[in-house]
Specification:
This protein has about 290 residues and is α/β, with parallel strands linked by helices. It contains eleven helices and ten strands. An eight-stranded mixed β-sheet has the order 3-2-1-4-5-6-7-8, sandwiched between helices. A two-stranded antiparallel sheet has the order 9-10. The protein starts with a strand and ends with a strand. It binds 1,4-dihydronicotinamide adenine dinucleotide (NAI).
Length: about 290
């Protein structure tokens, strides 16, 4: 595989495009929003500069990475010579299905169509394409350049040879693939989201402060960051979308998003990306827990 298209230049698409470009794949990063593309470019440059300052890469590596990256606001940048398209847009089934239809029409018969979805059924996405056997889940973790895992989701229609190719590609990115089956939330979010929701319920019930809850999980359970800090990093809207999918598909109360999460999302406090969630990021180097 040489030529990769990534659709959605938000938190995840930006990181995914960066790791492929750093491995010398030709990457086109597509977003309908020009500002998101500009932000994405700045984020990648900043990330590469940090890697240079830590002597992990050279200035030439940075230039080479940027030379392997093209930004585009047009889905027609995908064509029959694209080897792999990774969709990383908003976590909504209908919106993703619409984009999958277009990915299918624009790509060639050999192109693999992947989604970075956190919870949506890969089979449901594949149903709108002409060849569901080429559709697979490639669930990167946030922040993509740092996290080793890629959860590979095979649906009942995914061809075994496609799974093998994606496993090999993931290894080539120096990441670790774990293949799982196509159930809502897969493994990662089926376990993680109820924990985050429970942490929010603890906060709502007044069991402890934001800082108290995160400290207990960090110092007592050896989590590298607390669940509320992690929720802010993921994006509170993304957490809610995932919980909504889990609740709708698995019909269990434990997946019903807590009202405090719903309220923060409706107020536009989406975590780190809007500078406010459970923490205030006005000074990003020193986030301040908010009193609820
Ligand atoms: P985000 O909200 O940061 O970015 C989404 C981007 O998609 C935006 O820039 C938006 O302009 C663009 N977009 C929306 N509709 C589009 C369309 N039709 N055509 C082109 N661009 C479009 O979202 P984020 O957090 O990057 O999530 C993307 C996907 O990755 C979601 O499926 C999410 O569940 C999944 N994911 C998110 C993780 C996280 O920690 N945020 C972790 C792993 C997966």
């Amino acid at each position: 595989m040489k030529s990769i298209a990534v659709i959605g230049s938000g938190t995840m698409g930006t990181g995914i495009a960066q790791v492929f470009a750093q491995r010398h794949y030709k990457v086109v990063l597509i977003d309908s929003n020009e500002e998101a593309l500009e932000r994405s470019k700045r984020t990648i440059e900043k990330s590469l500069d940090i890697q240079i300052s830590k002597e992990l890469i050279s200035l030439e590596d940075k230039e080479s990475t940027l030379n392997h990256l093209i930004l585009s606001s047009d889905l027609h940048s995908i064509n029959s010579s694209t080897d792999l398209v990774i969709e990383a847009i908003t976590e909504r089934l209908e919106v993703k299905q619409d984009v999958f239809k277009q990915m299918d029409q624009l790509s060639g018969p050999h192109t693999i169509l992947a989604s970075n979805t956190s919870s949506i059924s890969i089979h449901k996405l594949s149903e709108v394409t002409s060849d569901p056997s080429r559709v697979i889940g490639m669930h990167f973790m946030n922040p993509v350049p740092r996290m080793p895992l890629v959860e590979i989701i095979q649906s009942k229609s995914t061809d075994v040879s496609i799974v093998d190719q994606i496993v090999q590609l993931t290894n080539d990115l120096d990441k670790i693939p774990v293949v799982v089956n196509d159930h809502p939330g897969f493994v990662s979010n089926r376990i993680l989201m109820p924990m985050i929701n429970e942490a929010i319920e603890c906060l709502g019930d007044g069991v402890a402060t934001v800082d108290g809850i995160d400290q207990v999980m960090k110092l007592g359970m050896s989590h590298p960051m607390g669940p509320l800090f992690l929720a802010d990093l993921i994006g509170l809207d993304v957490c809610k979308f995932i919980l909504d999918v889990l609740y709708k598909e698995l019909h269990k109360e434990k997946y019903k998003s807590h009202q405090l999460l719903d309220q923060l999302v409706s107020e536009g406090h989406l975590g780190r990306k809007t500078n406010r969630g459970f923490y205030d990021y006005t000074n990003p180097k020193n986030p301040k827990p908010i009193s609820f």
